[in-house]
Each structure stands twice: as C-alpha cells, then as structure tokens.
C-alpha cells in the first residue's frame, strides 16, 4: 500500500523542472521529465518573468509525466519566493515582476515611512530584503486595480485548478503574515493600504488545493489533484535536509545560499534583527531561521559575462577545478554587497569592491573564480556562526543541499572557514521535499509521519559527501 508516484513542479530563478517522484516502502526515486530555461525579461516598466512561457512548459511537462507514469496521484508546485501575479476578474493583469527589478527601492521608502523596519520586524520577523512582497506592492501601481494577488506557485495552482489559495510557507515571505499568530496581519495591511481581499486564505502544506480543470485537464490527460507542498522552494529543500540533531545548520545553495537552522519558535530579538536573520515559515509550523547570502548567482553572472566576452560557452566544472589550484593569497569581498544584486557585469563590479577594500584584483579567471567561491564560503561561515550565537546552539555540522552541494570547492572552503564538517547533499533537496510532503499527504509514510520520519526515510538513499575542515585554512 505504502507507495505511489507524484509529480513535482520546481521553478528556480534560472530554470524550471517537472519531475516524477516514485515512493515505495520509504524509498524515493526521482525522474526528470522536463527542464526549461527561466530568467529576467526586460519590459518598458522593468524586469519581469515570462510566466506565460513557464506555464506552457509546466503543462507540457505534466502531460509528459503522466504519459511516462500513468499512476501519478498528485502534483506539487514550488518556486522562488516573494513574487506574485495580479488578477482582475480572474485574469492575470500582466507578467509578474522579477524580484531583482530595482523599482522596489521606492517601495522600501514608502513602507518604512509608515512603519520603521524595527516595528515591521517585530510583526513579520523577516530579514530586510528590498524585494519582500510588501515593498513590491508599495511600488506596483497595478495593485490598486487588482482583486487578487497570488504568489508564483499559487498562481500556477490557480491556472491549473481554478482554486485561489496562499500556501503558508511562501506567504511568510511576503512580510504580511504576522509571525506570532501565523495569519495575514490585518492591521499591517490596513496601514499599508492593502485590501485584505487581495490575499486569499492561508493553506497548510499537505492540504488539497483542487483538481485540474478544463483546458489543463485536457492537456495533461487526467483531473489530477494539486496538493500544497512547502511551495517556497527553500521550505521544500529544508524538508529534505538529512539533519539528525538540533546542532546542525543547513545551507540550501542555489542562486541564493540560505543559511540557518530549524526552530520551533521564531527569534525576533534585536540581535536577530541587527544580523538580518529571517523567521520564514517551514513545513509543519517549523521556523526557518536563516539569512540570505548571495550564492551561486555571483558565479553564474560572472560566467555569463565572460561567455559574452568570448562569444563561446564556459565549462563550469573545469573552471572550478582550475580555481581550486589557485593557491596564492585569495582576496575576498562582501558577497552580500547590494551592488551585486542586479543582473550585469559581475566581474567589473566585484573588481570595484576589491579595489575599494584595498585588495588586488585577480588577473586570471581561475583566480577570480577562486575569489568568488571563497567570498561566498566566507559569508556562509559567518552566517553559520551568527546563527549559532543568535540561537545559543553549539552548531557542529553544516549540511549543504541543492546545486551548490556539487561544488566541491565551495563545500571544502565552507568547511574550512566554518571550522566544522560539511555534509553535502542531496542535490535535489527541493524536489525531494516537494515529493515527500505529497507522499505523506497520501499516507505513504504512515499516519503520524513527522519531518523526522521523512528525513530518516531518505537518509540511507541520499547519503551525503563529507568534507572535513582543513586546519591550516
Ligand atoms: C531561493 C529563494 C530564496 C528567496 C529568493 C527570492 O530560490 O526562494 O529563499 O529569498 O529565492 O525569492
């Protein structure tokens, strides 16, 4: 009885995928069915996503998934956070904005004029990121004329099923959910002039959203059920971190590096605010107490720039191998500098930061790559130590999951700089978390499965690679 197949839709900032997850006797197997590119698109009024294209790829991918695996029982959808689509009379008003669009600066000013950041933090427990949804709303002239705002995974679910919901983990990244009561903060909405009607009811991961309807059902081939998962990709990834002790920290590393620990209760102390740590909602009411570190974005934007210069593509694993032999002094910069947030010529911007810091700019691409990786590792290690201090935990191991777990140089330098072992993997944490929450909803892990049950079930299958800290680093 205990098993079956589900489909996971996982949308990242640079690509999206549809996967089949097969679960049997606690074992889990993933099969990628479709992968499609994603990225910012410049419109007259700023950076957007090509959501319409994403949706087409999703529907085509789901149809292919069902062809390959007719027993698929449900669909779960996760994506990056904070971004939303606006609806008017049920129709999308415009392609959603991309969170790296710089219009949000105006929104930050407007919101902080009404409520200083310290007051906001006490309410929503969120680290300051200029693109948190509440700032985006304040800068988006189309919000006033809309009757619904749906976060990206909820928007996909709506188009598929017709149901309008706000999945809780992702809703927590809007800045509009009260961190103590776990509901939309009505008072905050009023002060920010946001109609309470704009936001649909919150729904828990594991709940049924609805069945495919109309065109979606026809194209996919069956009236499949959509189940809410940890629809914030980071929430799904954390489900699949094989943590076995409260003294474990995690880094969910893709475009971003989300560095922190899992808690039962939020920490909204002045120190947490000053360190810009966030209390995002996890699956089962857990708290993702973490800090956003600019992750592989720096490397992918640098490589993109170099590829444009060369007019040919770069083989990243090769570049990273070469970078690991660049052993002379490695200058580092602040990976979190806000000037590195927008798309653009990353090598020049980084060179400027290095010069500002009185450091020499590496001359070769290998050495430059080493500087980028070490700077990310340094920011990771700092965030791990800060998380330990803020939560008074004796952190003694760091799990790295996501694409970054395959980056050996990054894992090793993170271990070196944190002074503790790094356990790398699974690389597919987000998709695994998405699949596990659906599988649990179907009862395939028994009636009382906790996150610990799920983590234990997959621990044997995805055993991590261990990196010991090198003492001399
Ligand atoms: C990671 C992520 C982060 C969020 C950022 C922007 O993919 O979801 O958790 O802060 O993207 O949405």
Automatic annotation (TrEMBL):
Ranges of residues in domain Carbohydrate kinase FGGY N-terminal: 7-239
InterPro entries: ATPase_NBD, FGGY_C, FGGY_N, Rhamnulokinase
Keywords: ATP-binding, Disulfide bond, Kinase, Nucleotide-binding, Rhamnose metabolism, Transferase
Record GO terms (molecular function): transferase activity
Pfam annotation, one family: FGGY_C
Superkingdom of origin: Bacteria
EC identifiers of the protein: 2.7.1.-
Family from the record: Belongs to the FGGY kinase family.
Cross-referenced PANTHER family: L-RHAMNULOKINASE, SUGAR KINASE
Record's protein name: Rhamnulokinase family protein
Organism: Microbacterium marmarense
Lineage: Bacteria, Bacillati, Actinomycetota, Actinomycetes, Micrococcales
């Amino acid at each position: 009885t205990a098993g079956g197949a589900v489909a996971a839709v996982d949308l990242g900032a640079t690509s999206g995928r549809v996967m089949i997850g097969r679960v049997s006797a606690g074992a889990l197997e993933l099969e990628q069915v479709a992968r499609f590119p994603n990225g910012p698109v410049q419109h007259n009024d700023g950076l957007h996503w090509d959501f319409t294209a994403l949706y087409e790829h999703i529907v085509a991918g789901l149809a292919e998934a069902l062809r390959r695996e007719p027993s698929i029982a449900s669909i779960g959808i996760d994506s990056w956070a904070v971004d939303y689509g606006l609806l008017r009379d049920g129709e999308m008003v415009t392609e959603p904005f991309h969170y790296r669009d710089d219009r949000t600066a105006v929104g930050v000013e407007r919101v902080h004029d009404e409520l200083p950041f310290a007051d906001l933090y006490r309410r929503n427990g969120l680290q300051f990121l200029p693109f948190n949804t509440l700032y985006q709303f304040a800068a988006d002239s189309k919000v006033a004329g809309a009757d619904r705002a749906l976060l990206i995974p909820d928007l996909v679910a709506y188009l598929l099923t017709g149901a309008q919901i706000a999945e809780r983990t992702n809703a927590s990244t809007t800045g509009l959910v009260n961190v103590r009561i776990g509901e939309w903060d009505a008072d905050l909405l009023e002060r920010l002039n946001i109609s309470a009607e704009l936001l649909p009811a919150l729904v828990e991961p594991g709940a049924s959203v609805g069945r495919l309807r109309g065109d979606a059902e026809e194209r996919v081939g069956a009236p499949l059920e959509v189940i809410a998962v940890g629809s914030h990709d980071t929430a799904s990834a954390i489900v699949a971190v094989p943590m076995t002790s409260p003294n474990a920290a995690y880094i969910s590393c893709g475009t971003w590096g989300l560095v922190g620990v899992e808690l039962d209760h939020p920490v909204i102390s002045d120190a947490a605010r000053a360190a810009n740590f966030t209390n995002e909602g996890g699956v089962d009411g857990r708290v993702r107490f973490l800090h956003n570190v600019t992750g592989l974005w720096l490397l992918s934007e640098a490589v993109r720039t170099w590829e444009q210069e060369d007019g040919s593509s770069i083989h990243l694993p090769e570049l990273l191998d070469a970078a690991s032999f660049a052993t002379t002094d490695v200058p580092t910069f602040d990976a979190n500098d806000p000037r590195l947030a927008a798309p653009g010529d990353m090598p020049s911007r980084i060179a400027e930061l290095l010069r500002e810091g009185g450091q020499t700019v590496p001359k070769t691409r290998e050495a430059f790559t080493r500087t980028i990786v070490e700077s990310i590792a340094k920011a990771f290690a700092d965030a791990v130590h800060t998380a330990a201090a803020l939560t008074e935990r004796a952190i003694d191991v760091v799990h790295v999951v996501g694409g970054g777990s395959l980056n050996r140089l990054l894992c090793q330098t993170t271990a070196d700089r944190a002074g503790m072992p790094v356990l790398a993997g699974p690389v597919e944490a987000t998709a695994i978390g998405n699949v596990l929450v659906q599988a649990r909803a179907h009862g395939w892990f028994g009636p009382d499965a906790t996150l610990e049950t799920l983590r234990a079930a997959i621990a044997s299958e995805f055993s991590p690679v261990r990196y010991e800290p090198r003492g001399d680093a």
